[in-house]
Amino acid sequence: MQELLFTKDYKNNEALRESFFELATNTFGLNFENWYQKGYWSERYIPFSFVEGDQVVANVSVNLLEFIINGEKKQAIQIGTVMTHPEYRKRGLSASLMNKVLEEYENKYDFMYLFANDTVLDFYPKFGFKPVEEHLFSMDFTPSQFEHTGIRKLNVNQADDLRLIHKFASERMPVSQRFGTDCTQGILMYYCLNVFSDDIYYLENENAIAIYKKENNHMDIFDIISIQEVNIQDILPKLAGIDTENITFHFTPDYEGIDVKSTISHDGLFVRTKGENLYPVQVKHPITSIA
Description:
Layout: E1 5-8, H1 14-28, H2 33-37, E2 45-52, E3 55-69, E4 72-84, H3 93-104, E5 111-115, E6 130-131, E7 134-140, E8 151-153, H4 159-171, E9 179-182, H5 185-194, E10 200-203, E11 208-215, E12 218-226, H6 232-240, E13 246-249, E14 261-265, E15 269-273
Helix pairs in contact: 4-5
Pfam family, one: Acetyltransf_9
EC number: 2.3.1.-
Protein name: GNAT family N-acetyltransferase
């Protein structure tokens, strides 16, 4: 067995990149290849890994982004793709990589955070992360007879549509000034390619992109991507149509003119703060920027 070596930010190393992709697929079912080939892996996504030869055996990835909290920008680091090959587990590799990340970015963030699954809830508090409660926002909706026009479904397999999505992702306003994220186009494009590829619509009159699903009398809105401010009361009737009675927002809506309620949502969010920074209460991290 060769000695394990530490390496990071190796997207241009074909052998390591392919091994990283394979480990992500085997561990989480993630498919990074298409996302990489289309150029959406930017300098803001940095894997920290242990390798043996050309094989990535453990990883902790860093995503550099910004929070928007009550209109003010804060530097944030999101940890993701924490994984270890089965044959290399129980050797403290993830802990060692976490310590390397903390050392590297010690004075370079206001918030560091991650979303953990139920199997590792005791792991992250050892590194100063604290569990944080999230809220999910919803509203009752009165169906209308508004004509379902001016909406075009986008196809990520069509080059023009994909360019349009990427333009909006790159130039977008944060989905909320109360609590939103910025510099997250790489994460959003992953969701568009792999998670919501069949749920992306362009609203021509509003010049906005909506990612949403409808089932029975309920609608889930995962993101509204716009380059300028939008009037939500123009958008909702077009998306909802005549049969929607309830809408759930998978971000923190701060639109004027709508009445939303919130319920507690336990999504495994852990946050580490620096200085006097406090993570906001009663908010929902935008789902399309969760790494």
